[in-house]
Write a structure and sequence with these properties.
Elements lengths: L3 E5 L2 E3 H8 L3 H10 L9 E3 H10 L4 E5 L19 E2 L3 E6 L5 H12 L14 E6 L2 E6 L4 H14 L2 E7 L6 H12 L3 E7 L8 H12 L11 E4 L8 H13 L4 E2 L6 E10 L3 E10 L7 E4 L2 E4 L2 E4 L4 E2 L7 E5 L10 E5 L2 H21 L4 H12 L2 E9 L2 H12 L7 E10 L4 H8 L4 E5 L5 H9 L3 E5 L2 H15 L3 E18 L3 E14 L2 E7 L2 E13 L2 E2 L2 E3 L3 E7 L11 E10 L5
Helix pairs in contact: 1-2, 3-10
The structure holds guanosine-5'-diphosphate.
Length: 590
């Protein structure tokens, strides 16, 4: 149990947090600086950032989040009525990259889709449905990073079963562990699909041993309760059994939904399409969605114009656990928004306006978020990968672009990795390959067909096309420079020798001295030097000349100083103070 528990709301200013923690503001500002975040005393940091700071400073303090009473914008928990009916399970397929999630989904959908319609899935809506006997299973595509966070938010109610795909020839990897954590935090059941069992190098026993010994997931055959199925997405072996097991595990949950209630659910994707306007993928959780209903999601609303199932077939009604696309939203809702049905246009407008105001307030009130911090910390501690996909008109230029890119050097801090390359125009495949990673698709003397451009803008993939190789290389250099963590630069502004100490309190000192070099002013940091040793770092909160508050005091003048300290600090006559400021300077690659 931590010595101290403090409660904060969504965000807090640096100054308030320093007060609450009884620390000098400089300590917090310094810690933020060290992590590459330039924050001032009045800037607001979010709850997660505060938590990171407390952890990094190794304080024995527990921060709790204040429960917001106005949780109105959040989804209200749906209490099932006694008329609730059985619904298909919602299953997320997750696992390490290249372990076969996509292949597994393809294999399930290709072999199992009811009518084997030519062309199969026409639209990528991230969610599909398959039949097993007379039952349906809703499958969610492996969510990308953003999707992952939103899913986690909704996970507890949305995902019933997580299929963890582990390649039998590769074993448990970081994203496998991430998937296990996700399933556990979402309270979802797990079924492990040990994939690529057809390979000669497959070693399913090793996967089972890893899961059992390191993650407390014991296979049933060893007396445990984790369902593990050996499959091959390539040959189809074990796929039926996997689906049966998913249903069996889901049955233990008694999954139900209300039908006789206004439709509600989650936005899983949204984009604009020429001729159709907004095309939004939804997953219905309760109720039935029909054309003409007035849907509201986040800051968007509109009347349902058309409904299409995951294969792009027009449908008239969509019940619980159904993934579908709708048209009719006047603007695009965001991934992760909940949708509901409003009775009147006025109600829809009120709901969206309220949401808009909440979002604006949120955006305005937090300047530094935990995500910024984590990004900075990871930039600081790890070397970064800059991933690129390169397309060129002919093999010769492709080779020279790739070779030149590899020569862009950042002294080891950022590594350029070519994760895909080829000759020809930029294709949908290139965009898909990039979608999950923060990758740049470089084109050299090639084109970006309009359909691919749309896909790229929908998936927020950066495509950059050049005709001159040096311009391409300059762009790569500057992108890699952006990944370099900024440098904290200290700027000396002056020195002072202490001539007298007037008051020493628990966390502050009032003293006087003579400026021996440069100048001193308030809101800077001072190093306290005694016998050539740095004994503390303090914050100058105010400066006085002849008992008057002064902006700056220069070399040769006497002044009084109020210093804020970390702990009780006995400053002595003769101590030297060195004043400086800290600035964040972004670096570039020469
Ligand atoms: P994802 O990144 O998890 O979606 O993985 P993919 O489905 O893209 O598969 C990665 C690679 O593994 C591809 O080259 C697949 O052809 C291959 N692969 C997937 N499943 C199997 C399998 O069951 N057997 C074999 N031999 N290869 C597979």
């Amino acid at each position: 149990m931590a010595e101290k528990v403090i409660t904060i709301a969504n965000s807090i200013t640096v100054g308030e947090l320093a007060d609450t923690l009884n620390l000098p503001v400089t300590t917090l500002v310094g810690e933020l600086f060290k992590n590459g975040v330039a924050a001032t005393i009045n800037q607001r940091i979010d709850f997660e950032t505060a938590q990171i700071i407390v952890d990094e400073l190794d304080l024995d303090v527990e921060i709790q989040k204040k429960q917001q009473s106005e949780a109105s914008s959040e989804r209200s928990v749906h209490n099932l009525s006694d008329k609730a009916v059985e619904r298909p399970p919602i299953v997320a397929v997750m696992g390490h990259v290249d372990h076969g999630k996509t292949s597994l989904l393809d294999s399930i959908l290709d072999t199992k889709t009811v009518d084997g319609e030519a062309g199969g899935i026409t639209q990528h809506i991230s969610a599909y449905q398959t039949d097993r006997g007379d039952r349906k299973i809703t499958l969610l595509d492996t969510p990308g990073h953003e999707a992952f966070a939103a899913l986690r938010q909704h996970g507890a109610t949305l995902t019933d079963v997580v299929v963890i795909v582990v390649a039998a020839d590769d074993g448990v990897k970081p994203q496998t562990v991430e998937a296990i954590r996700f399933a556990r935090s979402a309270n979802a059941k797990m079924v492990v699909a040990i994939n690529k069992i057809d390979k000669e190098t497959a070693n399913p026993q090793l996967v089972k041993t890893q899961l059992a010994t390191e993650y407390d997931m014991n296979p049933e055959e060893w007396g445990g309760d984790t369902v593990m199925v050996e499959v091959s997405a390539k040959t189809g072996q074990g796929i039926d059994k996997l689906l049966d097991m998913v249903l069996l595990v889901a049955d233990m949950e008694e999954l139900k939904a209300d039908i006789d209630t206004p439709a509600e659910g989650l936005v899983i994707e949204s984009h604009m399409e020429q001729g159709r306007g907004s095309v939004v993928s939804l997953l219905v959780e309760h109720g039935e969605l029909k054309p003409g209903q007035l849907m509201v999601a986040g800051t968007a609303y509109g009347k349902v114009r058309t409904l299409h199932d995951y294969k792009g077939r027009a449908i008239k009604i969509a019940g619980p656990s159904t993934p579908l696309t709708v048209t009719g939203f006047k603007e695009l809702p965001q991934f992760g928004d909940n949708f509901t049905i409003a009775k009147t246009e006025k109600e829809a407008r009120q709901l969206t306006e309220k949401k808009r105001q909440e979002r604006e307030k949120d955006a305005a009130s937090t300047n530094v978020t935990g995500a910024d911090m984590l990004k900075m910390i990871s930039q600081k501690h790890e070397s970064q990968d800059f991933k690129v996909i390169v397309k060129a008109d002919v093999q010769g230029s492709l080779t020279s672009v790739i070779d030149s890119l590899k020569l862009v050097d950042t002294g080891g801090e950022v590594t350029l990795r070519v994760i895909g390359s080829g000759v020809g125009n930029i294709s949908e495949n290139d965009i898909r390959l990039a979608a999950d990673e923060k990758t740049v698709v470089y084109g050299f003397n090639v084109e970006l067909p309009p359909a691919v451009k749309r896909l790229a803008s929908r998936d927020k993939v950066q495509v950059r096309i050049f005709k001159i190789i040096y311009e391409l290389l300059d762009d790569a250099r500057s992108s890699m420079g952006d990944l370099l963590a900024p440098e904290v630069v200290e700027k000396e502004i002056g020195k002072l020798t202490i001539k007298g100490v007037f008051r020493t309190l628990k966390d502050s000192v009032i003293a006087g001295g003579e400026v021996t070099e440069g100048k001193v002013m308030a809101n800077v940091i001072a190093r306290v030097i005694r016998d050539k040793e740095n004994i503390a770092e303090v914050e100058v909160t105010s400066v006085q000349r002849q008992q008057q508050e002064a902006k700056e005091v220069f070399e040769g003048e006497m002044c009084g100083l109020s210093l804020k300290t970390n702990k009780k600090l006995l400053i002595e006559e003769g101590d030297k103070l060195e004043f400086f400021t800290r600035e964040l300077v972004s670096r570039s690659i020469s």
